[in-house]
Amino acid sequence: MTVRRDFKEPARPRPDLIIGREELFAGAREQLAAGGSVLVHGPAGIGKSTVLRSLATEYGEVVRTVLRCSATESESHLPFLALADLLGLVVDEVACQLPAPQRTALESALTGRGESTLQRDGLALRLAVLSTLRALASRGPVLIVADDLQWLDPASAELLGFAARRLGGTPVQMLCAVRTHTQPQGQEYDRCLSASPPDTLAVRINPLSRAHVAELLDHRGYTGLPRSTVRDIHRTSGGNPLFALELGRALVESTTPPSPGEPLPVPTSLRALVLNRLEALSAEARRTLLVASAGARPTLALLHAAGRTNAEADTAQAAALGLLVTEQDAPGVRFAHPLISAALYAQADAQERRAAHAALSTAASDPIERARHLALATTGTDPEVAARLGEAAAVARDRGAPSVAAELGLLAARHTPSDAVPGPDERRLQAAADALTAGETDFARDIADEVLAHATEPADRVRAWMVVIDAAGHAMAEVDAVFPQALADAGDDPRLLTLVHYQLAWRALLVEGDFERAREEGARAADLAARAGDRRNELLALAFQAQAETLMGHPDAPLTIKRALKEPQDPRVACDHNGAGSVRFRWLIMSDQLAEARKTVSSLLREARRRGMVEAEVHFLRGLAETELRAGHCGRALDLARESLRLARDTGIGEAASAMLTSLAEAAGGEVDRALSLAREAVARAEEDGDVIYLSRALAALGHAQLVAGDAPGTVHSLRRVRELEEGLGVTDPARGRWHGDLAEALVRIGEPAEAQGVIDATRARAQHLGRESVLAVLDRAEALTRAARGEANAAARQLTLCQDRLAELGYRLEEARAAYALAGLPGRPTGPAAYDEAARLFRRCRAMPWLRQVETATVTSPAQPPLAAAALDSLAATERQVAALVMEGATNREIAARLFISVKTVEATLTRVYRKLGIRSRVDIVRLAAGRPSG
């Protein structure tokens, strides 16, 4: 089909309509823009109608006629109702163009007069619908929008299908939605697809991710929910946006949140979706399913052990009603949707729930599950139950499941008598520590606030204050008022003072940017811990001191690292993101020992994942990404950085740092626009948090992205700010941020070679003192550019050749490629595409796509390119000509996709066809051909 091509740019949908649906919208838009039809499908509440309305709003503005219908189950028995909705208001416009028999049959069907039927007037009606759509399309493009196709009356569905199969090149498109429960299959789905044109794109709307559910809840005003609660909402809703919003609304409105270990309360609005099917169960089957809903991983064997002797028959009955999903050769009992399990549990009274948990407390084989069920079956305090829960929490902690350990710890606190040892507050604080390990900072803060509201013991209060500070992350300025209170509660106890002074060291670093004071506070915390015999916190304090000294370029840094690595060690500190292992990794990567750095950080990442230490996992993912980036493995670095950013956004931990590192990875191997966006996000977050340390690093990432984007003035502005910040902070090691070469290069580009030389000279002195070989090589590359700017082309070429070899020897492949690129562009060097072959080869080896695009641009010497030869144009289709023309303008594939409303993959496929038709191999060849030069 074809549609009118003079489209104005369609309006974009509201942000809440496309959360988690960006790729889906892009594919649907591309299909509609190409003249095709779209069938949206998925389960109830997944957002089909929302997507349909949004797309219809966009494309209703660029077609002449929009025909709409929305079927309902109660009206699906009425023949021709959907047809009347679609054509009733427009048929008079074209009725005179229909042959009399067709006009009579259609009028009878639409008005109900004459009792028209498909059996009696089938052919006339079919032809009438086809003729009407053709007549409307002769005046301009037509869009048919039909929601809930599953309820379309059979007569209307048959007539639409007949017309859809015969419209051919007529500009009539269909945009429809249908409810499906599983993957597209079955008679119902086939019937709906048959009512659409042959070229229809079927788009399945899948569940939202946890991050997208959190974004949706925030956008709809359900803010302030702890991340652990959002996780439960996502799990219970199955990623269904309607269900998630209803659960969020119920929680916000509830005055009694669920107790630890209990499922979320299910509002009546959602219970109604499944209770009618639950009512069809026998009483025994319902009790069996209640036991299954209370279990973590129910199986038939578990149900039997819990006293459900007829489990097979009961589950078979539930499966027949669509409540359970049967899986061949699978022992598990799985609910068709998590909401069914939650609704069943919510509907049961307290006594029924306790009975189910009591049965499972003896039936479950796992000690953690037995303890959890015992707690939920018991009311009031019980020291034996509390002890079993504490033991189960320790098992979960050792298994690397700190989130489970936190839940069990709170259950243990609830059942612990006030005079027991350990007491309820001690158990709560251990649960808070586990929650921090799991990345559930909001949950941990809530626990600490509860303890502080009533605790009088100094040890409990200080530990609670430490949780509050840890939960603040890099936004330590927000909890400044905590420190005097924590010092007052600590008194003169060296063990408690260790905790406070360790956090004061971090505050001096992050908030004040005072490295010397931070170093002193770290050393003081280490001394206090040694006096108290607290080896764990002594190791953390020594690691902090070593980190501060490393960033300062302090001569004692290697010695302090050795002290922090000295035995005895604490296994959890060894893989902590603030432990000595992390500091050693930083020292290795700053000292150009990339292979050993990769080995070290990979080991730390494995151990952090094994122990479920989420913050450490985010941190070490960044470290591994940085190592791969330094080594020039840009694709691998980009994958790791994006993984770190996803985890950071999901947990709210280290978002600024992960955005900063991902910006560097995007600038090296991804998309420059995204690199700029992420760097600006990192800057904004660091400024909001008052984090001066990461502000300098974020600005350095922004300056680098601006350099890759060709914005030399922007680079200079950003990196001058970095220079001012680091001078004020006392950061002297240039291997920390590695921004100095970029600043010098950008200064040369804007005509300031003297300032560039000043940056190089000052940085070189520090790098030589510290033995930073890779930094020195990069400075040589920048200095060669200053020499070239002064007209010393031969000296510049010799220096670039030497620094390229040195960078290759050190293993810095991307920096080596940049040196080759700079060499190819020197004045007086041979010109033409061949001059850049070596740089292109090296960038391609690194998968450094933004730099490769710069090479392609550099090989085109003429600023204004003539159009492609007429003979070449004639061989291209319309879309191919548009893509080729935009390539001529220097647009990237992503920019072309945005301007033509198609996907990047479609741009790539179109370019492949262009290359084949023109007998060329690359984007550069398009430009050469257009300029009248032979392609390479």
Automatic annotation (TrEMBL):
<keyword id="KW-0067">ATP-binding</keyword>
<dbReference type="InterPro" id="IPR036388">
    <property type="entry name" value="WH-like_DNA-bd_sf"/>
</dbReference>
<dbReference type="InterPro" id="IPR011990">
    <property type="entry name" value="TPR-like_helical_dom_sf"/>
</dbReference>
<dbReference type="Pfam" id="PF00196">
    <property type="entry name" value="GerE"/>
</dbReference>
<dbReference type="InterPro" id="IPR016032">
    <property type="entry name" value="Sig_transdc_resp-reg_C-effctor"/>
</dbReference>
<dbReference type="InterPro" id="IPR041664">
    <property type="entry name" value="AAA_16"/>
</dbReference>
<protein>
    <submittedName>
        <fullName>LuxR family transcriptional regulator</fullName>
    </submittedName>
</protein>
<dbReference type="InterPro" id="IPR003593">
    <property type="entry name" value="AAA+_ATPase"/>
</dbReference>
<feature type="domain" description="HTH luxR-type">
    <location>
        <begin position="869"/>
        <end position="934"/>
    </location>
</feature>
<dbReference type="InterPro" id="IPR000792">
    <property type="entry name" value="Tscrpt_reg_LuxR_C"/>
</dbReference>
<dbReference type="InterPro" id="IPR027417">
    <property type="entry name" value="P-loop_NTPase"/>
</dbReference>
<keyword id="KW-0547">Nucleotide-binding</keyword>
<dbReference type="Pfam" id="PF13191">
    <property type="entry name" value="AAA_16"/>
</dbReference>
